[in-house]
Amino acid sequence: MMKKSIGLGCLLALSSISFAQKQGELTRSDIQDIQASYKKDNYTTAMENALSSNDVKKIAYNRDNAGKFDHYFKYKVDVKGITDQQSSGRCWLFTSLNVFRPKVMDAYNTSSFEFSQVYLSFWDLFEKSNLFLNNIIETSKKPITDREVRWYFDEVIGDGGVWNLFVNVASKYGAVPKSVMPETHSSDNTRWMNKLIVRKLREDGIRLRQAAENGAKKRELYTQKKEMMKGIYRMLCLNLGEPVSEFEWRFKTKDGKLTELKKYTPQSFYDEVIGKEQLNDYIMIMNDPTRPYYKKYVIRNYRNTEEGINWEYINLPNEEIKQFAVESIKDNQAMYASCDVGKQSDTKRGILDINNYDYDSVYGVKFGMNKQDRIYTRDSGSSHAMTLVAVDVDDNGKSTKWQFENSWGASSGHRGYLTFSDAWFDNYMFRIVIKKKYLDQKSLDILKKKPVVLPPWDFMY
Questions:
Q1: Which helix H or strand E contains 209, and what residues bound it?
Q2: No. of H helices and E strands in the chain?
Q3: N-term to C-term CA, the chain
Q4: How far is CA 320 from each of CA 286, 293, 295, 440, 443, rounded to the nearest angstrom?
Q5: Taking a C-beta distance cutoff of 8 angstroms, is the pair 131, 232 a contact?
Q6: Would you say residue 14 has pLDDT above 60?
Q7: What percentage of the chain has pLDDT greater than the value 90?
Q8: Strand 262-264 and strand 247-249: pairing?
Q9: 3-state secondary structure 89-135
Q10: What is the residue extent of each domain of the chain?
Q11: pTM, full prediction
């Protein structure tokens, strides 16, 4: 009797386990029910034929939205000329420099000017490499499976970035005109250069960890790191050219006058055209609905130089950000801005609007996530930086549409610009960098508070 009881108990237990393992399984009945829901009516048949043979964006393009936007604005910063980052991730660097480009043209009374992006890109990658190796040394006692260590080896370096990286590298290394250090094939096409530098850094990182495991002191590790940086410098020089340390430069004014050659160092040129005090005048403000507004945040270890500043911002509602941005544009001050440029983007016509494409009607399903949902699920996030240069307003002074100066060349969008609606701003704009003088006192007071520290692997970044 006892054996029979045990056997029955085992059967019941096995039955329970078997049932638990089937939770969520699609049964044949489930599949048949789902299949029956697909009704091949005339519309569905036509849409199946269309979608299986065409680009979905062409099918979903909302004809009712065509012609609703022009490219005229009541207020626009005095900008001229379009830059082109080519096949690189340097939008943040182009955008940062484009904020100051109009100021240089105005100060020198010249009709054209462009900074050398490759010059600062060189030092950005060099400094990122140094910071990576420093981080590996500082975490050498942690197991390689530790989340922080894994993050360093996953991310290593890249040519992407944000405003604070520009502040760090420009403050340290200055700036030069593009004619002094022009682009190279590798700066225009960064994929393989980055890939091989990352591979070398990962190897160097492992060697440093192995040396630490074998008893090397930190002082010895930093000595080894310096030797490793010579190899990184060599790779960068071979791809981008050796950065200039001094140069002569002249230009033509708007009336055709050729100026005399003048000697500069990158730092003296930077001081003349930008100046350290100007960078201190700017602050990043973000719209991140996943976090409380009216707080200051800083992302730990999100920088490029060891001694530089980390990514820091204050989080504000969109309506307040827009008010500040309008004042900046009215005062002829362009702003660094970052957004999810791929969403609802009609780049051929240069229009960004939430009604550009009607995917709901095409598929017969509802796409209903809000901005917060899209951030949490990683469906949306900042993907591209551009210069915010124009705004249109209604009779009450409320913004209705905006314009970016892009860095994809003059043939992209509307002659190099992208016009976007106020509703698109609400949904897909994430941050701008603006002069502090356009903020209200409430926002300025937030800057004095201690920031909330976020990890570099946070879902928003």
A1: helix 191-213
A2: 18, 14
A3: 64
A4: 11, 11, 14, 9, 10
A5: no
A6: no
A7: 91
A8: antiparallel
A9: CCHHHHHHHHHHHHHHHHHHCCCCCCECHHHHHHHHHHHHHHHHHHH
A10: 75-454
A11: 0.91
CATH number attached to the domain at 75-454: 3.90.70.10
- Tens digit of each residue's pLDDT (9 = 90 or more) over 123-153: 999 999 999 999 999 999 999 999 999 999 9
Integer Cα distance of 408 and 410 in angstroms: 7
Catalytic positions are 91, 384, 406
Give residue 276's pLDDT band: very low, low, confident or very high (50, 70, 90). confident
CA angle 201, 203, 208 (to 5 degrees): 90
| Block residue for tokens 């033509």 | 252
> Are 229 and 130 in contact, with CB atoms under 8 Å apart?
yes
Centre a 10 Å sphere on the Cβ of residue 340 and count the other Cβ atoms it contains: 22
Which residues fall within 8 angstroms of residue 141, CB to CB, at 6 or more apart?
A: 212
pLDDT at 6 over 70: no
Name the helix (H) or strand (E) containing 434. Answer: strand 429-435
Enclosing H/E stretch for 22: none
- pLDDT recorded at residue 259: 94
Q: Is 1 helix (H, G, I), strand (E, B) or coil?
A: coil
What are the beta bridge partners of residue 249?
262
